[in-house]
Design a protein that fits this description.
The chain has 164 residues and is mostly helical. It has helices spanning 40-59, 77-95, 108-113, 116-127, 132-151, 155-163, and strands spanning 10-12, 21-23, 29-31.
């Protein structure tokens, strides 16, 4: 049987309950075949389920602790949430066919030459000093916008987005 992976893709196993992910030569993540939502309704159900889970975890942490960095860690919880918000912005930009480079404060040439680690560093520098409340507001806004855009996708549009 022929492998579903392009030759230049590196497979890595991430810890925990995360599935296999593939990284292309530029360090961008590609999901494993079979893990992608089958249609718009499946996508919306997964978004709702994961959003509820994320909110359950966030609500279990006292607001004041969201900005504390654990000993030995470079990131506080709010920094992790800002990281999630950054990649939600990328998702939204792709859904709306908008430029992504501005999300990272880069010009297009620098953005195209950057791998995922460089993009994460740039995003971290942009959002490091933001208060937890602003990060949470961002997350809620981005979630609502993504659900709104995804809700309007026709089956043909959904398939076109998958093909990108």
């Amino acid at each position: 049987m022929r492998s579903p992976w392009p030759r230049r893709v590196v497979r890595r196993r991430l810890p925990g309950s995360l599935l296999d992910w593939a990284f292309d030569p530029r360090g961008r993540i590609r999901a494993v075949p079979g893990y992608i939502p089958t249609d718009r309704d499946d996508l919306l159900a997964r978004i709702a389920r994961e959003w509820d889970g994320l909110n359950e975890v966030i609500s279990s942490v006292p607001q004041g602790r969201l900005s504390e960095r654990p000993t030995g860690s470079e990131w506080a919880i709010k920094d992790c949430l800002a990281h999630v918000a950054t990649w939600l912005r990328v998702t939204l930009a792709r859904m709306e066919q908008a430029p992504e480079h501005q999300i990272f404060g880069m010009d297009q040439v620098t953005y195209r030459a950057s791998n995922v680690d460089a993009l994460n560093r740039a995003a971290d520098q942009l959002h490091r000093d933001r208060p937890a409340t602003a990060v949470l507001d961002d997350l809620h806004d981005l979630h609502a916008r993504i659900v709104a855009v995804a809700s309007r996708l026709t089956p043909a549009e959904y398939r076109r987005h998958l093909a990108r």
